[in-house]
Design goal:
Elements: H1 15-27, H2 39-50, H3 54-93, E1 98-101, E2 107-113, E3 119-125, E4 136-139, H4 155-168, H5 170-182, E5 185-187, E6 197-203, E7 206-211, E8 222-226, H6 231-242, H7 252-260, H8 268-271, E9 303-304, E10 313-314, H9 316-324, E11 330-332, E12 335-339, E13 346-350
Antiparallel strand pairs: 1-2, 2-3, 3-4, 5-6, 6-7, 7-8, 9-10, 11-12, 12-13
Length: about 350
């Protein structure tokens, strides 16, 4: 016997062997992968033929072939069920959200947008016993959520729970966006969604490291002053004195200015207000004066890429027209979601915006 239900057929030219083969063929149709000689099999077959017990030999051979075939099917069945299950569940989520997958489908990556148009990649690891065994999840977020799972759960349930988790982190990311846009952030240069700290310049070669609580971003942050200048000691004393005045009903930036008793410097490019920014698409500082443009006629750039290493300015009208020409752009209500033409970071522009 050979694996997968095949066996070696001896090269016998006797009439007895031909008779046995014909009888065996009438009972079962056999597909031969290869015909090889086997001395042991010849001896075995001749002994069986001499005893004229062909029917019993045929029965034994059939049982052996069926057992081997059943074992092989038993090995393939779980794998086939796993692949069929995963394919059907990806279909439910939407193939347009799948950005990467392993050949054996044990690893999947989905692209998910949050309410503000930020792009998130959720990686899912599946065990071959799925869905009995829950998947493992990783993503670029401050902390991962606790997955609620049962044998009846599906991949779409994972996506829904992840989207719910993203919803709870919106205020956290909005707070960090306000810091990035309004203060002089020196580190990190390219923040990730999981990054919860910001190092800002507060002037006079003094720096402040802020650690934002992802679960309560409006609360008093943990902070660390860094400088070789003696003035930093004075800032520490001011912070200790005023930190009790931190109020959650005020914005993070307002609380920070109150606690430090000073107006913090903004990003270097924002400080240069006297320089008109050119649009990164039409390369003009102002839109043409045209009655069809309405209130936007002759206006300057009104949209800036959020990426600190880019900060490219655009007319929202030009950026909207450019996004419409890109096939990967998504539209939700009156908002276009796409990527910056310079750094590929996510951008979101309102249609017919009058910013």
């Amino acid at each position: 016997m050979r694996p997968h239900g095949y066996f070696k057929l001896p090269e016998l030219q006797t009439s007895s062997w031909l008779t046995a083969y014909c009888l065996f063929s009438q009972v079962r149709t056999i597909w031969f992968r290869r015909i090889q000689s086997s001395t042991r099999f010849q001896i075995f077959a001749v002994q069986r033929l001499r005893k004229q017990n062909i029917s019993k030999w045929d029965s034994n051979m059939s049982i052996r072939m069926e057992c081997t075939s059943q074992n092989r099917c038993g090995e393939l069945a779980p794998s086939s069920f796993f692949h069929h299950t995963v394919y059907s569940e990806i279909e439910e989520v939407g193939w347009e959200h799948l950005v990467k997958s392993a050949e054996d489908l044990t690893s999947l990556s989905f692209r998910i947008l949050d309410k503000r148009g930020r792009v998130h990649i959720m990686e899912i690891q599946l065990d071959e016993s799925y869905p009995k065994c829950p998947p493992s999840i990783s993503a670029d977020v401050p902390h991962i959520f606790k997955l609620e799972w049962s044998v009846n759960s599906r991949l779409k349930d994972v996506v829904l729970q992840f989207q719910e988790h993203l919803g709870k982190l919106q205020e956290f990311w909005s707070t960090l966006d306000d810091i990035d846009q309004s203060l002089w952030v020196v580190d990190p240069k390219q923040p990730h969604h999981a990054t919860s700290y910001r190092q800002i310049s507060i002037g006079n070669d003094c720096f402040l490291m802020l650690f934002i609580n992802a679960n309560d971003p409006r609360s008093l942050p943990e902070c660390r002053f860094m400088s070789s200048d003696p003035k930093v000691n004075s800032l520490r004393r001011i912070w200790r004195r005023n930190c009790k005045r931190w109020m959650k009903d005020k914005s993070f930036l307002e609380n920070l200015a109150t606690a430090l008793e000073t107006q913090l410097p903004g990003p270097p490019n924002i400080q240069q207000n006297d320089q008109q920014v050119e649009c990164g698409i039409c390369y003009a500082q102002c839109l043409p004066i045209d009655d069809e443009l309405g209130a936007r006629s002759g206006s300057g750039t009104d949209y800036t890429c959020d990426n600190n290493n880019c900060r490219r300015g655009f007319h929202s009208l030009c950026l909207g027209d450019w996004l419409r020409s890109i096939t990967t752009t998504r539209q939700s209500f009156n908002v276009l979601f796409g990527n910056c033409p310079y750094c590929s970071e996510p951008v979101a522009v309102k249609i017919n915006s009058k910013k």
